[in-house]
């Protein structure tokens, strides 16, 4: 498989990652940058999940008559569960820090948040 | 006790942290004492593990859940991990003592939990044998670090923390992409098995995956130009935490980078990655030393110094030779001691005199002689003066660097070291030969720690043999991948 | 293919059609209030159709009867929550001061709020003056 | 409507939750039933005070019967509503004449008011914008002439209530009191 | 499975139209309304997928999704009216 | 002008990076079976863990260590948020009451949401649920309470203690495994005691998975609620 | 064998004890004892080293995975003994002049460092002790002057790191760090040529920098005047007398280890080995430049500082000649410079201690007040000025002879010029300090204290002994260098000349007599009234008051103005300024505080990775 033919899921995942990174690189409001980070994380999670997908197979829950050979790779799904929770935790932390920052600086503009430099 | 009890290294700090809410009401002093006790026990366990590993010469493989790798996650406590987990525990213990003097901001119970979990995170990063588990522990470490950086709740602290979060977030995301690629290519997450299969991975996948993983870890390992968060975080964090950052948090990232790098050494583009890392590491040293040169804030200055030293370690690891890795490990240990000493000293001065600006250090020799003495010894050691520990590791690194053919890197690093010598010189001069002051009484436990660390610095400086042999063992633990694979009892799934 | 399956499928089709309508309303209506008028109802009914339809269709396909129970549960949940969120949204729109469409003919809520505010203000003024007098 | 006793509330909550458990699990496995009972007990113990005021009184057969009867009635109204929506959305001229009108309800209980509000929201051309005491403020997509031309406030309320709240109230008043 | 594709097409169009409204606005509430519609549609879609794959377990996924979406929309709505 | 330049530079940079990532991903074709360890899990999950849901078995049992870490991460976030937003005295920031529609809706929903949360984490080994979604669901119940009632507050002390106790409970379950089976996080219920072997696919199976998921569910629920609580309040000057 | 270790570390340990106890009396006793130990051990091994069957005493220890080799052989014994002699003298001097346990610690530490450098048989030990000695001496300077110590420190560190890289390159190419193996390997490689010419040149350049700094070779000398002045002057005796010899020793090491390879790589030019020629010229330039600068000083400390630099230049020059005779001369001058310059510094120490003054204009007529010190300084003056039969003459004469026989007339000219300059400044010192009118505030000056006088005596004796019997030294050195100098204890015979020290010694009587006459009559004839007249075209005014004690050589300074306005000092300072500006630029530019920029750095790294992957 060459680059132009990668799956739509990969494409979507990469797009999310890049959009998120774009927000981090361009947006002046630090909250938007943080949202960019979250979008990136989502993209990464989508990527992980996509890697574990196997065409024509079902969720790796072996009930309702699903046999082991009919299931997709369970590992990436387990990983994504963990990654999502970690993402939530990171987001909670970033938002709290932004709240504290705003309280002290009265701004969320990155160009004004630079008392620590040099 | 069998080796599986080494899992207490993980279980204890967790239990310790989870227990804090239940004793929240007992007051500041009780909670600080509690942290001290937990870290002391952790040090005991780590010492036991160290003794086990070094006396038997075999790594302890902790198999979580009883599943053999690669089915389950295993901890690989080899020579390196045993050593470094011990260092993590000791450093945490010392800083737990420092907490009594340095931490006054509320809420102390949260601080205590985060403190223990920072220790946990670094321990896990060093011990784990699973690449995704590494990610988890890395996140534990870095999220704790984010929280602790902002703990003082000043605007600057929040600013530093946010910077750290944004850069760390990008780093960890790309790290995870790398893990995804490597998983997609090998179908496993176990480090030993990945090492086994690394040679067969599609070269493009391997190149992208390895580059991304190294990139992600390099953010944590403070490599230039990914380290811009570091000085701010070091400056803003509570003093004991800064010491922990420098003493082991960054080292955990660095180690992880080295470990994965060497595990993947059969990948085709490996040497290119190494070259890139050599460039980055050298630039890290140079830029950091120059940045430290004119700092007015001593804590920030030492932060830059720490970054440069870490760059030196990274350089050693990036050489791709046994000599380099050994030297890097040696430097890691020495640097941990020195920076614990320096940040402890500087932090204590900041606590006592109300800030870490250079003006506060004028006449320190008269005000707080023991602390001043400790800082001086730390500074001199950092510069690489003989009879102090860093001399040996720096010498080793330079020799290894030139030996590996990177004479230019050695040139640049040493040129930067001249700069380092100058700013430490200024500090020492300010402490002993400028300003006046009345004697302030110094806390006995802190003085004891300072003196103990000074003795350690000099003892290693005079008699580096033991630590060097330990470093060599730890170094070959990283470098000798074949042995690593052999040591992990892979059950042969998919093979 | 049996009758249940056909019924289910038809319901699903109707449901998706209402989804379409709902989104169309979102586009066509002139302001947020009227968009909600059209889209909330259609989306809810659409869901009802799709979800219950799936339940019936599944029975028709010979799956366990648990299907219908579960789908009805989901549908019921949406039936309870969707109007609540619509209400919360339209209230938020009004409280944020998003103006009604220019073609709107009456605003009793605005009048109500204004008279309420007036009453409160009057009350505040009297209490203030009385304080002033007492001093 | 007076407040029920704690026990009554608790038992009522437990029963409702247990039924919901059955629906959610869609299973009659004994293990599920045992677990469901335990969980319903715990949750009911924690939340019965929030959940209900009337307690077991809600299970009066008349109320249950009316509730069951209400379902098809409401569904029908809803389908009609959607046909109305379809007409307005698909009509090229977009026939709308929106406004916010005021109604008054005779319902007393909170649950009743909620049900009325939701019913209004889901049925022809109306969304509940706010409820203040007995007053309902409703966004109406086509305010009819008789409401628009009401000569005073009370007539406005009367006409609007006639059109919007009355049809549901006859059921809801029985169901929720 | 051609039928399913018709449904999917309708759902896709609906989603696209809603997405347009999300980006177009003009008010925050407009966007939020569009998101709310999208979550509702997605819930239905998930149930549809459950049937497509013949797995009842997916329905509970849809359930959780609907629940969290509801909470999210309410939170936003309350935030917008200053109720947080 | 600078901004346009910056944007274009960003886009070019990102496109190159994206192309590079795509190049890497092209070597890991979508939809193909890349499993190595995955096969083992699928083949052995039922007999080895008693769980039907292989993902759950991996999350809680095979790779339980990750999950312990994950729990810790959330705990850190909760603690960290608590530390950052700490004030001696705090008060809700809400200014407008929720309408009766919302408050009554919330009253009706909260018990059900809690029940459903419990359902999710108890059935983790059978359905796609688990401790985290279950906990999140329970937290949603509290979120709804916060939305509807401007004066509502969770019982902090009880929640914090629950967090701690439940976290310790998880570690202790792991340590019991160490004591009984010789390995940390060893599933002693399934592997040593053999409970539920004849129940695979039914509720009373899955070894320690349901226990751990109950603990996680409670922990996540209390933690997320705590985070919400912290974020919806501001300090009060005394 | 442990004696080597004892000898090495006795001063250091003594220093630590002195520092830790910090009790007056005990501190000094321990210190002196500590310096005596190495001398004792060296004396004990004299017969082993210099006997009929010379043996090399070797001690090996393993430190940090490195095998450290310590050797006592002909050369290292020679250097170590000189150092120890000065060390003891320094200790006695410090008993009188130093009240600081800090100074005792670092003075003795640098003593250990110097001994270690001389005894090391491998590069690790060499580097370690080199650093130790540098560090300790730096700490001595630091105590008195921030500016001078920084200059010294920076240059020393640059030198040390240059050496480290050179060592690294050798290690990379040879895989060994001990002198024996390296010497052998490089000897082999001189023929094989597996180490490229440019790399060899680089190593040479690096070592040149390293040793040049320590020896104070121009243009790396800028630290020396300040550093030598701004320490306790008793310590300067050691600093200038022994520590700078480490640089000279380094150059010698270059010949021993790399000579063949350097010749092979850098070639021969007009019958001279190119690398050697470079060293010779480095020495010659140093002799002349520092000589001129010494002449122009108004501060006695600065004068002797520049003088030290100039004199070490002689040693380099001698080594650079590259013949056995040259080596003999150079090594002899190591000894004689050590003893006469050490003596000078102790004299200066006494002057500073008793008067608190350092400038010529503040001195005068002290010969009556401090007669013994005067006598000592007279010996030093004679030796330094190269007046027979002092040690200084013998060594300079040998170097001169070597230059002539190696057909290096320009270099010989430099020697000559240097000697003339030396004469010029010592005469001024002699006159301005000891003779002439005594300022009124020096009436109460007392003779130097006894310990200081003992220290002087320790150094004065060798000046005379090896002056009268230079053959003692040449014979010892001859064992190692193949006896390039003939004659006996009292007579030196070279291919181009003969020097009979004993004969000259007889003339000393006359010399002393002349000195006495100057002393006696000088007092009566010295008063020269200042008139408003012109001398050499310059008006004699208050601020242009030429006298022996003030601006005596100012016309020379004006004549050299074209050159003096270019100062190396200022050059280095500007360099440092540029470095600091660069540092600020880097800091402010890179760590600019904007996290978005930081995110861009990450993106750029990703971009580089991507481009490297895509292309
Ligand atoms: Na992250
Ligand atoms: Na909804």
Summarize the structure.
The complex is a heteroheptamer. Chain A is mostly helical and 118 residues long. Chain A has helices spanning 8-26, 30-52, 74-105.
Write the layout of secondary structure elements.
The structure holds 7 protein chains of 7 kinds.
Chain C: H1 3-28, H2 32-60, H3 66-95, H4 108-134
Chain F: H1 2-26, H2 37-49, H3 54-62, H4 64-84, E1 90-92, H5 100-122, H6 131-148, H7 156-181, H8 188-192, H9 209-231, E2 233-235
Antiparallel strand pairs in F: 1-2
Helix pairs in contact in F: 2-3, 3-4, 4-7, 4-9, 5-6, 5-9, 6-9, 7-9
Chain G: H1 2-21, H2 26-50, E1 57-63, E2 66-72, H3 74-97, H4 101-119, H5 123-144, H6 146-174, H7 179-192, H8 197-215, H9 223-229, H10 233-266, E3 268-269, E4 272-273, H11 274-295, H12 300-321, H13 324-355, H14 371-384, H15 391-405, H16 409-434, H17 450-468, H18 471-481, E5 486-487, E6 491-494, E7 497-500, H19 501-525, E8 534-535, E9 538-539, H20 554-559, H21 561-564, H22 568-590, H23 595-614
Antiparallel strand pairs in G: 1-2, 3-4, 5-6, 6-7, 8-9
What would the keywords be for this entry?
heteroheptamer, A: 118 residues, mainly alpha, Helix Hairpins, 3 helices, F: 238 residues, 2 domains, two-stranded antiparallel sheet, 9 helices, 68% helix, 3% strand, binds sodium ion
How would you explain this protein's 3D organization?
By secondary structure, chain B is mostly helical. Chain B is about 75% helix and about 0% strand. Chain B has a two-stranded antiparallel sheet. In chain B, helix 10 runs parallel beside helix 12 (about 300-320). The model of chain B has no long low-confidence stretch (mean pLDDT about 90). Chain C folds into two domains: about 1-105; about 105-135. Chain C has four helices and no strands. Chain C has helices at about 5-30, 30-60, 65-95, 110-135. Chain C starts with a helix and ends with a helix. In chain C, about 55% of the residues are buried. Chain E starts with a helix and ends with a helix. In chain E, helix 1 runs antiparallel to helix 2. Chain E has one domain (about 5-80). Chain E is mostly helical and about 80 residues long. Chain E is flat, with a radius of gyration of 15 Å. Chains in contact: A-B, A-E, A-F, A-G, B-F, B-G, C-D, C-E, C-F, D-F, E-F, F-G. At the F-G interface, helix 1 of F face helix 23 of G.
Number of strands of chain G: 9
List unreliable stretches of 5+ residues of chain D: none
- Report the C-alpha radius of gyration of chain G, rounded: 25 Å
SSE class of chain G: mainly alpha
Small molecules (ligands, ions, cofactors) in the structure: sodium ion
Instruction: Please report which band the strand proportion of chain G falls in: under 5%, 5-15%, 15-25%, 25-35%, 35-45% or over 45%.
Output: 5-15%
């Amino acid at each position: 498989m060459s680059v132009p033919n990668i799956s739509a899921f990969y494409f979507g995942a990469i797009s999310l990652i890049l959009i998120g990174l774009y927000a981090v690189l361009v947006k002046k409001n630090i909250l938007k940058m943080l949202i960019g980070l979250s979008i990136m994380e989502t993209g990464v999670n989508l990527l992980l999940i996509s890697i574990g997908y196997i065409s024509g197979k079902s969720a790796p829950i072996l009930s309702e008559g699903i046999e082991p050979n009919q299931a997709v790779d369970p590992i990436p799904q387990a990983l994504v569960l963990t990654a999502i929770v970690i993402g939530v935790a990171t987001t909670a932390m970033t938002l709290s820090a932004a709240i504290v920052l705003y309280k002290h600086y009265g701004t969320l503009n990155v160009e004004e948040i630079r008392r620590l430099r040099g | 006790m069998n080796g599986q009890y080494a899992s207490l290294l993980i279980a204890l700090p967790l239990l310790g942290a989870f227990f804090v809410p239940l004793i929240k009401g007992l007051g500041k002093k009780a909670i600080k004492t509690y942290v001290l006790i937990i870290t002391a026990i952790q040090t005991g366990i780590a010492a036991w593990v160290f003794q086990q590993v070094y006396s038997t010469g075999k790594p302890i493989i902790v198999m979580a859940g009883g599943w053999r790798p690669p089915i389950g996650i295993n901890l690989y406590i080899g020579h390196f991990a045993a050593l470094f987990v011990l260092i993590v525990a000791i450093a945490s213990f010392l800083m737990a003592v420092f907490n009594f003097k340095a931490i006054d901001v509320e809420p102390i119970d949260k601080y205590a939990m985060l403190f223990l979990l920072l220790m946990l995170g670094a321990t896990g990063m060093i011990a784990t044998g699973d690449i995704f588990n590494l990610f988890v522990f890395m996140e534990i470490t870095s999220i704790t670090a984010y929280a602790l950086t902002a703990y003082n709740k000043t605007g600057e602290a929040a600013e530093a923390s946010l910077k750290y979060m944004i850069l760390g977030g990008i780093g960890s995301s790309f790290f995870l992409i790398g893990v995804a690629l490597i998983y997609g290519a090998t179908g496993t997450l176990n480090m030993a098995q990945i090492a086994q299969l690394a040679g067969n991975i599609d070269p493009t996948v391997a190149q992208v995956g390895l580059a991304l993983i190294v990139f992600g870890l390099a953010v944590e390992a403070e490599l230039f130009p990914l380290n811009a968060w570091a000085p701010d975080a070091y400056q803003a964090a509570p003093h004991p935490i800064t010491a922990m950052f420098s003493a082991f948090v960054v080292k955990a990232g660095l180690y992880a980078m080295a470990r994965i790098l060497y595990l993947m050494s059969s990948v085709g583009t490996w040497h290119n990655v190494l070259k890139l890392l050599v460039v980055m590491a050298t630039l890290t040293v140079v830029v950091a030393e120059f940045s430290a040169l004119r700092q007015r804030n001593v804590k920030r200055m030492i932060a830059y110094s720490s970054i440069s030293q870490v760059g030196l370690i990274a350089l050693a690891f990036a050489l791709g030779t046994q000599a380099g890795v050994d030297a890097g490990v040696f430097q890691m240990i020495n640097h941990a001691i020195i920076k614990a000493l320096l940040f402890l000293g500087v932090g204590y001065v900041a606590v006592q005199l109300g800030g870490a600006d250079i003006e506060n250090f004028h006449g320190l020799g008269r005000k707080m002689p023991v602390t001043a003495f400790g800082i001086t010894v730390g500074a001199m050691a950092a510069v690489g003066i003989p009879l102090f520990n860093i001399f040996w590791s720096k010498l080793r690194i330079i020799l290894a660097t030139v030996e590996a053919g990177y004479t230019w890197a050695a040139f640049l690093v040493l040129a930067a070291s001249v700069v380092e010598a100058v700013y430490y010189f200024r500090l020492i001069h300010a402490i002993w030969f400028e300003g006046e002051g009345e004697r302030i009484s110094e806390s006995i436990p802190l003085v004891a720690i300072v003196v103990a660390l000074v003795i350690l610095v000099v003892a290693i400086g005079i008699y580096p043999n033991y630590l060097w042999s330990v470093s060599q063992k730890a170094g070959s633990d990283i470098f000798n991948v074949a042995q690593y694979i052999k040591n992990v009892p892979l059950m042969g799934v998919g093979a | 293919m049996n009758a249940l399956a056909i019924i289910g499928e038809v319901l699903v089709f109707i449901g998706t059609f209402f989804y379409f309508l709902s989104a169309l309303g979102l586009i066509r209506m002139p302001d947020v209030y009227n968009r909600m008028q059209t889209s909330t109802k259609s989306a809810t009914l659409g869901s009802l159709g799709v979800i219950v339809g799936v339940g019936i269709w599944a029975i028709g396909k010979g799956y366990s009867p648990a299907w219908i129970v579960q789908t009805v549960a989901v549908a019921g949940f949406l039936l309870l929550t969707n109007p609540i969120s619509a209400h919360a949204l339209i209230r938020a729109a009004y409280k944020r001061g998003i103006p009604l469409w220019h073609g709107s003919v009456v605003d009793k809520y605005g009048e109500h709020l204004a008279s309420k505010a007036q009453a409160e203000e009057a009350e505040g003024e009297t209490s203030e003056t009385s304080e002033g007098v007492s001093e | 409507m007076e407040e029920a006793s704690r026990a009554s509330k608790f038992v009522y909550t437990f029963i409702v939750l247990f039924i919901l458990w059955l629906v959610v699990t869609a299973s009659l496995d004994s293990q599920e039933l045992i677990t469901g009972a335990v969980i319903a007990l715990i949750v009911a113990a924690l939340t019965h005070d929030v959940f209900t005021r009337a307690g077991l009184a809600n299970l009066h057969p008349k109320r249950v019967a009316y509730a069951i009867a209400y379902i098809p009635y409401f569904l029908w109204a809803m389908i009609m509503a959607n046909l109305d929506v379809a007409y307005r959305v698909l009509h090229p001229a977009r026939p709308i004449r929106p406004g916010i009108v005021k109604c008054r309800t005779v319902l007393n209980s909170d649950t009743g008011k909620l049900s009325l509000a939701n019913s209004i929201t889901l049925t022809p051309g109306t969304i509940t914008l706010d409820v203040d005491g007995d007053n309902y403020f409703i966004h109406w997509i086509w305010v009819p002439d008789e409401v628009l031309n009401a000569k005073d406030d009370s007539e406005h309320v009367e006409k609007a209530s006639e059109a919007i709240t009355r049809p549901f109230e006859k059921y809801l008043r029985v169901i929720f009191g | 499975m051609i039928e399913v594709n018709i449904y999917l097409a309708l759902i896709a169009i609906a989603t696209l139209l809603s997405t347009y409204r999300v980006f177009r606005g003009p008010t925050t509430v407009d966007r939020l309304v569009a998101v709310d519609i999208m979550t509702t549609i997605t819930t239905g879609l998930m149930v549809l997928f459950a049937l497509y794959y013949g797995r009842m377990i997916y329905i509970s996924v849809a359930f959780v999704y609907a629940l969290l979406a509801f909470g999210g929309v309410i939170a936003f709505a309350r935030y917008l009216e200053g109720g947080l | 002008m600078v901004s346009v330049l910056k944007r274009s530079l960003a886009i070019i940079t990102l496109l190159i990076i994206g192309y590079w990532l795509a190049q890497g991903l092209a070597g890991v074709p979508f939809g193909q079976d890349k499993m190595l360890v995955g096969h083992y899990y699928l083949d052995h999950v039922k007999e080895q863990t008693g769980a039907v849901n292989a993902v759950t078995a991996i999350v809680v049992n095979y790779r339980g260590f990750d999950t312990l870490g994950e729990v810790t991460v959330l705990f850190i976030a909760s603690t960290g948020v608590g530390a950052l937003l700490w004030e001696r005295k705090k008060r809700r920031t809400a200014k407008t009451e929720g309408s009766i529609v919302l408050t009554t809706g919330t009253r009706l929903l909260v018990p059900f949401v809690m029940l459903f949360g419990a359902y999710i984490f108890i059935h983790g080994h059978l359905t796609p649920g688990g401790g985290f979604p279950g906990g999140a669901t329970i937290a949603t119940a509290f979120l709804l309470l916060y939305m509807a009632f401007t004066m509502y507050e969770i019982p902090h002390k009880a929640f914090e203690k629950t967090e701690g106790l439940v976290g310790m409970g998880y570690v202790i379950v792991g340590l019991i495994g160490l004591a009984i089976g010789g390995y940390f996080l060893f599933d002693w219920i399934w592997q040593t005691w053999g409970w539920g072997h004849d129940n695979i696919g039914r509720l009373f199976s899955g070894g320690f998975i349901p226990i751990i998921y109950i603990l996680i569910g409670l922990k996540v629920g209390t933690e997320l609620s705590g985070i919400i609580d912290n974020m919806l309040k501001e300090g009060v000057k005394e | 064998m442990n004696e080597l270790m004892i000898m090495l570390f006795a001063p250091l340990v003594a220093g630590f004890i002195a520092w830790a106890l910090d009790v007056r009396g005990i501190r000094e006793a321990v210190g002196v004892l500590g310096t005596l130990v190495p001398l004792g051990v060296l004396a004990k091994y004299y017969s082993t080293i210099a006997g009929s069957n010379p043996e090399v005493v070797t001690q090996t220890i393993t430190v940090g995975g490195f095998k450290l080799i310590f050797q006592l052989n002909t050369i290292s014994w020679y250097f170590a003994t000189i150092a120890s002699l000065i060390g003891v003298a320094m200790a006695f001097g410090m008993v009188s002049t130093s009240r600081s346990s800090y100074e005792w610690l670092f003075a003795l530490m640098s003593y250990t460092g110097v001994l270690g450098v001389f005894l090391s048989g491998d590069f690790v030990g060499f580097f370690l002790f080199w650093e130790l000695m540098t560090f300790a001496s730096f700490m001595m300077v630091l105590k008195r002057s921030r500016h001078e110590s920084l200059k010294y420190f920076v240059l020393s560190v640059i030198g040390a790191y240059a050496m480290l890289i050179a060592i690294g390159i050798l290690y990379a190419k040879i895989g060994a760090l001990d002198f024996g193996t390296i010497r052998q390997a490089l000897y082999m490689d001189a023929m094989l040529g597996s180490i490229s010419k440019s790399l060899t040149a680089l190593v040479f350049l690096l070592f040149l920098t390293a040793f040049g700094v320590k020896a104070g070779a121009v243009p790396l000398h800028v630290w020396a005047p300040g550093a030598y002045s701004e320490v306790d002057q008793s310590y300067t005796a050691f600093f200038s007398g022994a520590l700078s010899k480490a640089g000279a020793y380094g150059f010698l090491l270059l010949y021993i280890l790399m000579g063949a390879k350097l010749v092979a790589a850098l070639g021969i030019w007009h019958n001279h080995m190119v690398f050697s020629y470079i060293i010779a010229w480095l020495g010659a330039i140093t002799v002349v430049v520092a000589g001129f600068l010494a002449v122009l000083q108004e501060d006695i400390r600065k004068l002797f500082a520049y003088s030290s630099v100039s004199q070490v230049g002689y040693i380099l020059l001698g080594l650079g000649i590259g013949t056995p005779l040259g080596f003999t001369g150079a090594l002899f001058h190591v000894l004689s410079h050590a003893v006469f310059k050490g003596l000078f510094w102790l004299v200066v120490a006494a002057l500073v201690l008793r008067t608190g003054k350092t400038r010529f204009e503040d001195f005068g007529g002290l010969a009556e007040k401090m007669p013994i010190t005067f006598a000592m300084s007279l010996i030093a003056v004679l030796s330094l000025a190269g007046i027979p039969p002092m040690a200084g003459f013998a060594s300079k004469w040998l170097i001169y002879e070597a230059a002539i026989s190696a057909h290096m007339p320009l270099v010989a000219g430099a020697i000559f010029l240097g000697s003339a300059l030396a004469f010029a400044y010592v005469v001024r010192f002699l006159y301005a300090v000891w003779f002439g009118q005594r300022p009124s505030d020096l009436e109460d000056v007392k003779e130097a204290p006894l310990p200081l006088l003992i220290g002087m005596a320790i150094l004065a004796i060798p000046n005379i002994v090896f002056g009268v019997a230079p053959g003692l030294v040449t014979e010892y050195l001859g064992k190692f260098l193949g006896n390039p100098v003939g004659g006996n204890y009292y007579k030196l015979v070279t291919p181009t000349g003969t020097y009979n020290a004993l004969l000259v010694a007889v003339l000393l009587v006359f010399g002393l007599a002349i000195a006495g006459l100057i002393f006696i009559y000088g007092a009566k004839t010295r008063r020269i009234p200042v008139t408003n007249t012109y001398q050499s075209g310059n008006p004699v005014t208050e601020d242009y008051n030429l006298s022996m004690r003030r601006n005596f050589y100012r016309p020379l300074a004006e004549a050299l103005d074209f050159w003096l306005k270019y100062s190396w000092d200022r050059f280095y300072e500007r360099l440092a300024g540029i470095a600091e500006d660069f540092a600020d630029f880097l800091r402010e530019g890179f760590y600019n505080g904007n996290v978005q920029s930081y995110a861009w750095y990450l993106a750029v790294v990703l971009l580089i990775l991507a481009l490297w992957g895509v292309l």
